[in-house]
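Reproducibility note. Readers wishing to regenerate the assembly model reported in the main text can use the exact inputs given here. Chain order matters: entities are listed in the order in which they were concatenated for prediction.
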Amino acid sequence: MPLLLSYSVDDPNRVTTVKFEAAITPYLRPSAGVGAVMLQVLYALVPAVLAHCWYFGPGIVINIIVATTAAVATEALILRAKGSEPIPAISDFTAVLTAVLIAFALPPLTPWWITATASVIAIAVAKHLYGGLGKNPFNPAMVGYAAALVSFPVELSAWLPPKMGDLDYTHPSLMQTLRYTLTGDAGVAFDALTRATPLDSVRVAFAESRTMSESAAAPWFGDFAGRGWEWINNYIALGGMWMLFRRIIRWQIPVAVLAGALIPATIASLISPDNFAGPGFHLFAGALMLGAFFIATDPVSGATTPRGRLLYGFGIGVLTWIIRTWGAYPDGVAFAVLLMNMAVPLIDRVSRPRVLGRE
Amino acid sequence: MSAPTENLHSLPGGLRLPANKRLSNATQIIDVPVPTHLVVPLQQHSGETSLATVSVGDAVLHGSVIGEPEGAVGTYVHAPTSGSVISIEARQLPRRGEPHGICVIIESDGHDRRKTSTPPAKDRTALLAAVHAAGIVGLGGAVYPAAQKITQGLLSGIETVILNGVECESYITCDDRLMREQPTAVIRGLETLLDLTDAKRGIIAVESDKPEAWQALRDVGSRDSRVEFVQIPAIYPSGAEDQLIYLVCGQEVPSGGLPGDLGILVQNVGTSAAITALVDSGHPLTSRIVTVTGEGVERPGNYRVRFGTPIADVVAAAGGYNSNAHRLLVGGPMTGFALTDDALPVTKSCNCLLVTGPAVQLSNEPRRECIRCGECAAHCPVRLLPQSLYHYSSRHDHAVLAELGLKDCIECGCCDLVCPSHIPLTQIFRDAKHSVAVDSHAKQRALRAEDRYRAHIARAESRSAVVADAREQKKRAASADAIAAIVQRRRPKQSNDREV
Amino acid sequence: MTSVIALGLLAAAVGIALVFLAWRFPATDEPLVAAINEALPQTQCAQCGFPGCLPYAQAVASGAATIDLCPPGGDATRVKLAALTGDVSVSTDHVGPAPEVLLATIDEDRCIGCALCIPACPVDAIIGAEGFMHTVLTDECTGCELCIAPCPVDCIRLDDPAT
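Running the prediction on these inputs yields the following structure tokens for the assembly.
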């Protein structure tokens, strides 16, 4: 007890003056710290990781391990170089979350150097070159993923078909996955092992003048989008709902992202159902769900005002739909997020709430 | 007499705080004995320091005036007991900003003889003068002189009087106990205020976590049809003046304005009871109810304390400190401040003495960079963007800070508590406000110096112009003819001289 | 060919617009001088070598003076002037605390009432008359030190107003 007691002159047994610890307001226990919040986000991703393993094999776990190792090591090195203690900064779990999101964005079969490159670029370039935690204007995970996507387009478009039992396909074993990840050689013909993603399949189908209903009749197509993919997106949405319930994220961004993508998708598919994929397909294919709940909600690179978040999210949704529909890449979440990141200072400025008592 | 609780407006932001009220609200208010020495500050109110009207050696009675107001805003200070003035000197005071103030130190004679007083006349002017003379100030914490607040409101007309019995801060229960024990005094004070102001509505607002106080007030009721009782949800900071007005009336006090601009007068329930005491007996304000609470006090509860009583004596009356005592706060945990010393006196603004244990608090947590999560903005009761204010405070960009509404920050502390990076935002905003004030003062001085310099230069120029003008005239007058005339005038004289 | 013509036309249009704007709204130093003057502390101390804050502002705006000549403004003023003028030749990395504003005080016992300090004060903050004791208006004094030199009996000193 850091008390300095001084005793009364007349009565040595009576404490007259007690010196107390000085501190600044407030004197109540503050809310959970950044580390605890990021840990909750990681917990929210656990169901989706398990589902991913179920449908695509152990690839994602290997990717998470590679990405996390690279991200944390990069962060530690940079912090050491900056002359600050790495442990407190790493223990905020922001680098881990960035790495896990990169692993989610990459195909289950990705050579380790691609995963590591994406992680190193995310942490070193997108985060620390801009000043570290809280100062990065761009979402680090998406910068890392976009850099990998433009550098290794072939590897990043080669996904596995999901395990659904009714497809004539044998999945690579754990050893095969490990071997490919570590050496880039699967031992069998790589093309035989991989399949296009549902987004890619539909894009190619449109390019070959096949209609949406023809794509929907294909064996890989489930209720709304690709089999298996639908379920993973369900678990991502489950994690997102839990974060909303725990107030880790606010509703504005996820709702606006989904609305931004689904409203134009609905209108377009109502006008021309053969030439445009419907809202169900957009919702359950690709990274829209992940983007809405886990990527666009990155606080550092996103808008911070309530109205600004609606604008920001809606922009991401619309851009995602535009890139998916007319762009050169099958999915557009990463580019949409990066483009909207650039607009954040402007959005925050125009969406300032009216202060109580002011015109 | 109704309870239109359904017409409440909802406050943006705010927080549900751990109440911690049970600790102190279960027992009756106890009088703290008169200490041997009282340190009575001459400034216990907002406005100008009062002037001492006594000298060292003077004998005073309980209720004698020892300080009178000077300047636009101020009030009287009274001796809290009988005795003699032994010193008038600067002492440290429990307040923010200027830590020292002039105090009258009174040695008690132990008899506590009261100065005879008579209840004031009932007419408005006499009553307002009596409220002013009794040194009654807002007892919620802002300590604005009550008579001046009423007078300012009367200038624009008061439609509604709100009695603030919200007490939304953690731990504090002095208003709760007052409403439970003296509901009649509280309600009668409101009726007096209504008569004083000719207001159409009088509203007593009580937070929903004080069912006993609510019941006590409702049981007494009021025969005055203007009086309404309103129960408001327990969300901090709904007891702050502007926030309470928004909750109850749905009107926003304009930025930089006063409730009077909306025709509203807000007074604390304690102030109301003090007005009733004045009306009944003519007694000035010389004591208040103080909540003494926290994990570090032996007998938490509410105590009636004379102004000037050292905090140590008050805590001693509450059984003294226990082994948990770690921090001594004046006010609640959100808006109060820590003292390092308990020899300081209780003043009119001390609603609570909180002795906390070594529990986790903001300043002990590791601080990180702002991650722009926006939780602070989501909880700000005035809809500010604390994350942006923080950013521009660290860049000392006063122009943007003004645009973002730094001066509208009520320093409630909600943003501090919800910040996951544990940034002491409120303290940063307090510092920024101070630096803005210093800066604008320097700017004012610079502008005045510039004007005076311009005047100085202009005067110097006009003076040299006057001199040049006079020379010019002289030169013009001294034309050739004139020179010849002078030469003429002098020449014969010279020749005469020669002739002689 | 089309693109060459299009770009050529565009360049010509922009060029004409620029010429018109330069002729219609001639550039002046006036706003810059006013902005620099506003950033200066207005002590009128002449320590920069110019006879007041406005002349110094004009000199900085025209490039005749560097931005680091204002002692009472301190680092903060230097940073502001660097931002206004775009001058990068003077380091603005180190921003120390603002220099304290001192106040001139006249020692009343020693003042002989010579009135020499009165015209020296640029802001007319000294009042008095020949043969009478002088005093300083503390609210107006900028602490510029210009009154110190003219005093024949050295009865003016500079005090920290806080103490």
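We highlight two features of this model. Chains A and C do not touch (no CB pair under 8 Å). The first strand of chain A starts at residue 4 and ends at 7.
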